[in-house]
Amino acid sequence: MSAVSIYAEASPNPESMKFVLNSNLLVDGVSVDYPNLEAAANSPLAQELFGFDYVGRVFIAQNFVTVTKSQPELAWTQLIPELRQFLKSYVEAGGPIFLVDPAAEQKAAQAATAGDPTQQDGQIAQKVIDLLDNYVRPAVEQDGGNITFKSYHEGIVTVNLQGSCSGCPSATVTLKSGIENLLKRMVPEVQSVVAEGITV
C-alpha cells in the first residue's frame, strides 16, 4: 500500500471536520452516513472511529471522511492530529472500510423505497435526481456532506442530508434558498423541498 496523505478541511458545520485522503474509499456518487455506532455495522472503519469518545457521527464518501464531534467544548486543534494519524495508519494497513459494498446496498434500498410512482412523477423525479447529482451534490461534498434524493410526491421533493450537513446551522438556509430555488426554476412542478437528517 502506498503512503496515504490526509489533510483536514473545515466545513460550514463547526462541529464537523472533513479529512481528505489521496486514495479512494468509495466509488464516486456513493456515500454512507452513520449517525451512531449501531448504524455503522457495515463499516469496521466507522466502528473504530466511534471508539473515540468524542466522535458523534461518521460520514464516508469517495475520498474523504467527515467526523462530527459530540463534545462542542473540545477544540479541533486537539483532535485533528489524533484522527488524522488513526485514519492514515488504518488505511495504510489495508484495514477493511466496509463489509458489504455500499453501492450495492444503496441500489437495493432505493429500489425498495421507490415504490411505484406514476409515470409523470417518475419523470419529474428523474429530472430532480439529475439536477441534484450534477449541480448540488458536488458543492455539498466540498463541505463534507452529501444530499440524496428520497422521494417526489405532489410537488414536494424529499431529500436526505448527510455528513456535516446533518447538524449544520446553515443547512436549512442552504436547503431553502439554494436547493429549493434551483429545483423550482429548473423543474416547474416542484413546489417545495424538505429534508430528513437535519439535527439542529
Uncertain regions: pLDDT < 50 for 5+ in a row?
A: none
Mean pLDDT: 85
According to DSSP, the number of beta strands is 8
Instruction: Give the H and E element order.
Output: EEEHEEHHHEEHE
Which features characterize this protein?
200 residues; 3-stranded mixed sheet; 24% strand; 38% helix; alpha+beta; 8 strands; single chain; 5-stranded antiparallel sheet; globular
Summarize the structure in words.
- It comes from Hymenobacter jeongseonensis.
- Pfam families: Nfu_N, NifU.
- Helices cover 38% and strands 24% of the residues.
- It starts with 5 loop residues before the first strand and ends with a strand.
- The mean pLDDT is 85.
- The protein has 200 residues and is an alpha+beta fold.
- Strands 1-2-5-4-3 form a 5-stranded antiparallel sheet, with helices on one face.
What's the arrangement of secondary structure elements?
Layout: E1 6-10, E2 16-21, E3 32-34, H1 44-49, E4 55-60, E5 64-69, H2 76-92, H3 102-114, H4 119-142, E6 145-153, E7 156-163, H5 171-186, E8 192-196
Parallel strand pairs: 7-8
Antiparallel strand pairs: 1-2, 2-5, 3-4, 4-5, 6-7
